[in-house]
Structures
1.
Amino acid sequence: MSTSLPHDSSKLDNIIPFLAEKLDLNPSQMAIERFEGGFSNLTFEIKTDQGNYVMRRPPFGLKISKAHDMVREYRILEGLEKAGYSKIPKPILCCEDESIIGAPFFIMEKVDGLILRNKLPEGKPLSKEFFSKLSRNSIDVLLELHQLELSKSGLDQLGKPEGYVERQVSGWSERYFNSQTEDIPEMSAISEWLKMNLPSAQNIGFIHNDFKYDNLVLGGPEDPRIRAVLDWEMATVGDPLMDLGTTLAYWAEEGDPEILKMFNLSYPSGNFTKAEVIAYYASKSNLDLEHILFYYIFGVFKVGVIAQQIYKRFQMGFARDPRFSALIHVVKACGKTAWNSIQTNTI
């Protein structure tokens, strides 16, 4: 048995006998390692002589929102499985007993493949054709999610679509001001602009809410097919265009601020531009994209708020990852980027 864990690892050691009993595994042939990367919930690989699993648990420290609700994320995977959606890791078990590791957690299968982080993988050159196909494949998957059947599968029980857009604008604005550490005029102004420019039309669909390349498991460096979508903690039923807006916010292009390229490897040659993402989505959806600027602005604002929340946790000592110290610059870049789009009426 071996572990490679962050602080509070004594609690995580308890997972070995727990899983040995629940999954009929040999505890002497188990090891736990944390996956590096990511800015939110913590993910660990559990290696066993009968195959490997993945464990998800909330971050240490402050409980920020339902985004860290492990039971809910597990139920989402179960609902997607019931709906016949295959691009997910199979959910294995969920534990709400916080005495085991200090927080609720769940176990799912490990899907092997290539996950693109914020840098090109060493020794694995990716071609322009690879990124072109990946761009198309990823938007196809996003469209597939947005068009899932909701009632028979029970997915409609995961959210309240009525008034979703207004609640999101209000909620993310409140989160920003609750976590604010310094005055960033653009972020305050964007919050007000969003409240004043709510679209009148409402769309309903299943949405991922954090859809970007590093949440996709690909076939390999020569195979841009998507084997699985990961990190379902913010998934719900709401307006699909809010989901598209968040994806566009993460969809960095070559000319975007360098610090905003840390979230998505969408800027190398061959990838769709933001305009091409919008055009491709529109060609395969019956939704009206007339107000796509609003949804994009919201997406950029939300990315800024997420960065602000994590930065505050870092300042308070609840998050120790040194990467988090730079996140205030992400907040500022999001503010400037979104405010410039508002002033120029362009994406």
2.
Amino acid sequence: MPTERVSTADDGDRWLQLADRFYLVLVRSLTGLAIIALCAWMGAGVIALVLDLRQVLASGWASVAERAIIDTLIMLALLEVIRTLQSYLKLGRVRVTFILDTALVVLIGELMGLWFREYAPEKVLLGLGVILVLVGLRIVTTRFSPETTGDAR
């Protein structure tokens, strides 16, 4: 007579452990692929920056410099996103300071873009206000970071 196997709590724990491992592997794999894609995108941006140098004689230095500055700030924002993803892989959590750094780079890039175009003063003041708030948050998160608490600084 065949005996039925009764599920125990150990079977449930095994499934949870398997699901946790699968999830971690999946998240790490997707994060690694995202880092590779962003690095490829940055590489393409560097190539485009170099190729844009040919346009200096045709369209003038100032317009090419404007585009180069904006493109460079975008690449710096990508670099901050890559740093955020790397810290997630290393620490298993996202560091708020890296997110704030990314936001600061993007907002400063937006303000730099306004420098070369017509802009409304309200938009500049709003951008400056947000940047000041983010700088304040950056200082607070650095001061009260779990990595620095307990140091004799």
3.
Amino acid sequence: MADLSTTESLLRADATELVAAMESGDLSSEQITAACLDRIDAVDDRVNAFITVDRDRALAQARGIDARRAAGERLGPLAGAPLAVKDMFCYKGMRTTAASRMLEHWISPYTSTVVQRCIDAGMVILGKTNLDEFAMGSSTETSAFGATRNPWATDRIPGGSGGGSAAALAAFEAPLGLGTDTGGSIRMPAAVTGTVGVKPTYGGTSRYGVIAMASSLDQPGPCGRSVLDTALLHQVIAGHDPMDQTSVPADVPPVVEAARRGDVAGLRIGVVKELSGPGYSAGVLERFNEAVAALTAVGAEVVEVSCPSFEHALAAYYLIQPSEVSSNLARYDAMRYGLRVDDDGHHSAEQVMTASRGAGFGAEAKRRIIIGTYALSSGYYDAYYGSAQKVRTLISRDLGEAWKTCDVLVSPTTPTTAFRIGERADDPLSMYAADLCTIPANMGGIASGSFPAGLSDGLPVGFQVMAPVMRDDRVYQVGAALERELEKDWGAPLLARIPALDESEKEGAR
């Protein structure tokens, strides 16, 4: 068992190590939760990973788990482990903002299925994490509550839209996190923060109680610092939910077993030809090739695969996603809930809606609403939205052909490492290109994950694994093998090499 006798070792421990320490009586959930809350107090002014911290309720939950464990109750494999939740999930009694002024003061009257499953499993909810407004972005810069910063280098972005959850893991504020992934919002932050993030098969996790952005693409998923931790969280949150009409009525894939096994001997791995080349940094491609070589060394069969439609995925996505945004965000009309701008009470409904939406939505949200409304408008629907849906069909066909020769597909998760905050703020097309590798999995509804592959110029690189519908276990199977083989070379998890956030940490590490 790992030595968790110091606060630093406790904070850096995997969730599985923390649970083992709780079961042995060496630690309590209250101690662990208090340490995470103190860590948030100490460093989050530099990271800005959290929008809302739920200190009192988190400590009460932890004490409850400790009492149940002391009474001899049989608890789940993550019972007592703290969790950071992306602020797209409803949680009863806590504000749910989607990082927007539109919902800044909205208190959710109910809890999402995914969060409730975590609570039922004995996990402790630390609070809500930052994101791009309504999950629209690749950098967590569009949040109404300020940009989140990458703990590896605080002048860099932590990815988006779910940069808050990923940054909380990398800053050792929480051992586990929840995210949503519409075009890479779990995987892209995982890649640039040196953490693990998985987008389950569409319908594999419930969207009930998750604020809708693009309903045919959104999918909740787990974030962790190790493959096994992430798989254990996946197992907790996955499964059919009658409250979600898109939920798949099927058994949860054996993700934990796959993460523990990590055997890729004989597995057919397809390197996607279209997800490489110009626009990809040399360091990212070097780490990717090294990861492929590591998998080959332990018995994987590697071939090159062509998915021609992937070249059009980015353009199609940025028509489909804004179109669904236009539809979903139309509900924020200042008539029922959310921000309402009506200074004297004598304005018409149309005037109130216009003023409220103007004040409540940020620039990126407005941009996508306008794009989507235009794409859905009379005379343009077939040319834009209809054509994009045809590309989506071609992507699914290409994936179907790929599965005839491969068990999984792999690529870099992002074309580059984390860019500087503000670097792409005035260049939307450059910002959107950060999702180049991750979008095809959302368009095809398949499972996909990002795993640490090393560093390039001191910044993390992610390795993406894609698997067929409801074969999420293969994602973890490859991720676990990669983690094991690369950590042999590194001598420790990648996050052991993260720079300290402050001078006191540097002193403690000496």
4.
Amino acid sequence: MLFVGDDWAEEHHDVELQDETGRRLGKARLEEGVAGIAKLHELIGRHVAEGVEADQVVIGIETDRGPWVQALIAAGYRVYAVNPLSVARYRERHSVSGAKSDAADARTLADMVRTDRHQHRVIAGDTPQGEAIKVVARAHKTLVWERTRHVQRLRHALREYFPAALAAFDDLSRADTLELLVTAPDPASAAELTFEQISAALRRARRRNVADKAAAIQVALQARHLSQPEVVTAAYAASVRAQAAILATLNEQIKTMEDQVEAHFGRHPDAEIYLSQPGLGHLLGARVLGEFGDDPDRYDNAKSRRNYAGTSPITRASGKKKVVLARFVHNDRLIDALGAQAFAALSASPGARAYYDELRTRDVGHHAALRQLANRLVGILHGCLKTRTKYDEATAWSHRTEGEPRQRSEKTSKIAA
């Protein structure tokens, strides 16, 4: 077998090749792109015996995506995506000086896949369709997060010079709110807005109870508040116009990406199974599928899927001390989606609601209870995907209605909130 460490950067890759004894066979710095990957294939070819299969070449790299990684997988190599934290800890096993270089990291990665690859995971063989869902779902969620950031910036600016706007508009990301802020971004011009102007903006945004809402907005905008000097107000008004324009564009692009997510997700063969799960719709389902991937052999069992999700707890035991804690190292996008699913499942699934209520009666905090519920739902999803069956409420929670002990261990009930 041949072991390759690949320390990647934006413009180049440092690689080192080792045999099964750890002897260095070669090293190089390769440029990113077609020319670089061709040189890597050539370098590997010089040290692999004729007739040896490509999967006898094992590569460690600190990423699981990108054209370079896809080219390695397409060549048939066994590619391990190694967490950079693991690489840093492994480096400290052999050197405490703190020295670091790209070439040394390539050697560390080669050592890791040579001696400890059983502790790491081969990059999953997700289908192109599953990869496409991950791309559009991540893009959609990123835009949503960006909108939230810009709303907070807009709110901060309005609080500084135009508090009447915060009293008038309950949602700063709405189309009617943004239109009115662009039209009248300062207290003086906003107070002069007519009932008809406000009503027209509400109707274009397809709001209900237009007359009542327009009257309430007009009253709030005409109320007296503390103000800033005129020149400062004008500066803030210019910044608010810019923020409103950015938010309007984000709203448009979020809707566009939402359509893309639904279109890609709807064509996936696992879509029906995901949509049958309580709390999952097209958007959340696409996010969960994209982050888990669709390789049917990626997770050996429900426990490994829960561990990857970050919903299962970890135990720290030393001597007489033993504590159970939530995982703080996890896929942020996946844990966010699973938390949203668990919250939605409280209304969609009687079994999920009963489990959550039971946890709360044992003094488990709200967030900890949702995390434990999400952990259960991940296990249910794993079973449905393995058996290729849709979610069934009675089957999913039958173990709880058939006499499962209601008293849990003290360890479980004290999982850190």
